[in-house]
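Sequence, please.
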């Protein structure tokens, strides 16, 4: 039986965690992700889950305890945001290198300084090369669905995964969420069977061994190859989810892309705003489209280059800055995949929304106007642009 419940993004994630019923959750609260573990801890206190909840003294400790629990052979989770994710940095690499299927909801928030508690993607983009699968959600429904899928993805690939939502925009905004029956969720994720539990005394293993130049390279190569095999697993589980629950998300979403001449590439909640802009411009006869990138790690380069190859001009929107890189992180990767595929549409980069700065439909429409100008003139006058910032 399904229920339509009014929930914030944080409530939806905590509810999904309740239905997953992990063995261990170790957490330290941080705005705007605090509510996730706060609500979940109430489920623990009320006896609605069988989870051992470990309240630790920092986010570094939260990831350390989660690593220990996962290595021991439990289904383990945590949640964090911003500076909390940054404090986990050292342990993120250890979790992925040890091939531990940890699932972590992450609420996107800017990194200090200056101190800011609102949404941008600086935190997770900074961790993009830490060996974690990264899935970005447009809304709370997708985050709820994605977290349930994430358990299967992580455990089949033996890699950790983070499912993200934009801070306050999704985490604290109320939506109607279609939730599933507890048994249906449990049947979908299945009973956890750890591959190499540390506490299996009949099959002893070493965890965290010293690994110098004799074998380190080979072990990292093995880890890289594991990530290369994630994409088909995500697609397979997504289709199983569709068959069971009726919804599917894929690696990315194409919106009005069939005959589009120009398009925006974006991650996260701003896709919803961009769809309104696309609808407005379509009514004016403009052939515009949108590609919302959902899975950023592993980066689906071949499929993206194919989806974008017929466009005359593209704008990539980044809610984080590459600082001295040649554009934002999403822009540099989109540019790279198009170049190596031999595709050559004109491409622009827009840095937007840092520190939670609002991005309006009118802002997105100006981007499409810029793309129209590029198509008419055949020239990109300014490659890296800033959207909605004071000059």
């Amino acid at each position: 039986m399904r229920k339509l419940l009014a929930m914030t993004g944080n409530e939806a994630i905590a509810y999904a965690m309740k239905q997953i019923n992990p063995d261990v959750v170790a957490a330290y609260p941080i705005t705007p992700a605090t509510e996730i573990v706060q609500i979940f801890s109430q489920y623990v206190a009320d006896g609605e889950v069988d989870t051992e909840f470990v309240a630790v003294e920092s986010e570094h400790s939260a990831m350390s305890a989660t690593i220990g629990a996962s290595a021991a052979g439990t289904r383990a989770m945590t949640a964090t945001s911003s500076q909390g994710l940054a404090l986990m940095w050292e342990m993120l690499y250890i979790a992925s290198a040890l091939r531990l299927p940890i699932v972590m909801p992450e609420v996107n928030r800017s990194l200090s300084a200056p101190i800011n508690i609102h949404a941008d993607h600086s935190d997770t983009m900074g961790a993009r090369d830490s060996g974690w699968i990264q899935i970005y959600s447009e809304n709370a429904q997708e985050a709820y669905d994605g977290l349930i899928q994430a358990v299967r993805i992580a455990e089949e690939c033996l890699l950790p995964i983070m499912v993200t939502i934009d801070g306050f925009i999704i985490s604290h905004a109320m939506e109607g969420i279609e939730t599933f029956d507890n048994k249906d969720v449990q049947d979908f994720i299945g009973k956890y069977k750890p591959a190499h539990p540390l506490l299996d005394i009949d099959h002893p293993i070493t965890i965290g061994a010293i690994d110098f130049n004799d074998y380190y390279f080979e072990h990292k190569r093995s880890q890289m190859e594991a990530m290369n095999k994630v994409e088909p697993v995500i697609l397979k589980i997504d289709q199983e989810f569709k068959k069971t629950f009726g919804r599917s998300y894929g690696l990315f979403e194409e919106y009005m892309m069939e005959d589009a001449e120009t398009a925006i590439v974006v991650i996260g909640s701003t896709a919803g705003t961009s769809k309104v802009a696309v609808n407005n411009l379509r009514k004016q006869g403009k052939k515009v489209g949108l590609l919302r990138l959902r899975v950023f790690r592993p980066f689906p380069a071949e499929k993206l280059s194919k989806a974008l190859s017929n466009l005359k001009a593209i704008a990539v929107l980044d809610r984080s800055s590459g600082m001295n890189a040649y554009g934002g992180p999403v822009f540099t990767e989109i540019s790279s995949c198009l170049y190596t595929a031999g595709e050559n549409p004109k491409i622009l980069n827009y840095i937007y929304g840092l520190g939670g700065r609002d991005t309006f439909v009118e802002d997105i429409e100006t981007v499409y106007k810029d793309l129209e100008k590029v198509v008419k003139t055949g020239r990109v006058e300014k490659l890296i642009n800033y959207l909605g910032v004071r000059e």
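The chain has a mean pLDDT of 97.
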